[in-house]
Amino acid sequence: MTDTATPSVLFVCVHNAGRSQMAAGFLRASAGDRIEVRSAGSMPADQINPIAVEAMHEVGVDITAEQPKVLTTEAVQASDVVITMGCGDACPFFPGKRYEDWKLDDPASQGIDAVRAIRDDIRARIEALVAEML
């Protein structure tokens, strides 16, 4: 990360339908254009988890326009920070990148109450990440 370039973060989970989309939504909402945000999945789903969309809508963050995307080597190379959420060894590793693994429950097949708890955990982690990066 340099002072002149916009820092970038890539969120990766298996399906890119819940955790990584919620994290990306929170980071876009709190950092605006000060941090470039990407998200991807090692095995992307067909659509974003509707319960995750509902949980985010409750806190004023709209992720309805997002679509699950496949994880590419280029996305990892272009990011300063790579945050994984359960994708394990599927995430490519490049020296010099900052990697974090956030242990978060998968919201797939869970009810709104469980997804709210995951959402709130992600929001707290994003707030700490923004404070650290900016």
Automatic annotation (TrEMBL):
Stored InterPro entries: Ptyr_pPase, Ptyr_pPase_sf
Gene3D superfamilies hit by this protein: 3.40.50.2300
UniProt entry keywords in alphabetical sequence: Arsenical resistance, Oxidoreductase
Record-level Gene Ontology MF annotations: arsenate reductase (thioredoxin) activity
The protein's name in its UniProt record: Arsenate reductase ArsC
EC number: 1.20.4.4
PANTHER family: ARSENATE REDUCTASE
All copies of domain Phosphotyrosine protein phosphatase I, residue ranges: 7-132
Keyword DNA-binding: no
Keyword Oxidoreductase included in the entry's annotation: yes
Pfam family, one: LMWPc
Enzyme class, spelled out: oxidoreductase
